[in-house]
Amino acid sequence: MKTKITIERKAIGRFELVDLPEWELYGLQAKTDTGAYSCSIHCHEVKLSEVGGTEVLEFQLLDPDRLNYHDRIYKTKDFRVKKVTNSFGHSEERFLVKTKIMLFGELIETDFTLTDRDTMRFPVLLGRKLLKRRFFVNVDRKNLSYKFLKKIKSK
Predict the structure, then answer these.
(1) Calculated CA dihedral for residues 77, 81, 82, 88, nearest 10 degrees
(2) What is the pTM of this model?
(3) Cβ(15)–Cβ(27) under 8 Å?
(4) What CA–CA distance (Å, rounded) separates 68 from 41?
(5) For residue 147, with 0-12 CB atoms within 10 Å meaning exposed, 13-18 middle and 19 or more buried, which class applies?
(6) Is 18 in contact with 28 (CB distance < 8 Å)?
(7) Which neighbouring-strand residues pair with 35?
(8) Residue 88: is its pLDDT beyond 80?
(9) What's the CA gap between 87 and 122, in Å, rounded?
(10) Of 69, 44, 49, nearest in space to 59 by CA
(11) What does residue 14 show for φ and ψ, rounded to 5 degrees?
(12) Residue 68 and residue 76: Cα distance in Å, rounded?
């Protein structure tokens, strides 16, 4: 007889407010998307440079007209290129970087692909890789992580 393991999952809303503390970005609007494998974030400038013989990825997140925009150039040596099929069914190569995302008071390390989302309503997309075994999506609700943290802080 097989033992069934039950994993406790939290409900996450169709939209969430998320923090990316390593990048000093807080209260970003994110769309939960079970059709996307990985998370993505809007990037409007990206380039490769060389520092001391090592390739470095430089990028700017969000758009200058966004509330959370910092006009900051982020740099990392820890990146890779990933082939992604976009929402229109076209394959493209994107840079993939790691960072921590804050959801329900928990820091979770996850991958983000850098892409142009300037025509999209939400600058951040939360994909299945992040959601798997942690959350189930309640499409009737939104900002459950933010509401959870607000509730805890009020106690």
Answers:
(1) 120
(2) 0.87
(3) no
(4) 13
(5) middle
(6) yes
(7) none
(8) no
(9) 14
(10) 44
(11) -70, -25
(12) 21
3-state secondary structure (DSSP) of residue 121: coil
Domains of the chain: 10-136 (2.40.70.10)
For residues 116 and 44, the answer to whether their CB atoms sit within 8 Å is yes
Q: How confident is the model at residue 5 (pLDDT cuts 50, 70, 90)?
A: low
In the chain, helix, strand, coil percent, each to 5?
Answer: 10, 50, 35
- Cβ atoms 38, 27 nearer than 8 A: no
137: buried, middle or exposed (CB in 10 Å: 19+, 13-18, 0-12)?
middle
Q: 113 near 38, Cβ under 8 Å?
A: yes
Token pair recorded at residue 72: 């900051």
Within 8 A by CB and 6+ apart from 53, the residues are: none
Q: Which residue has the tokens 């939104």?
A: 142
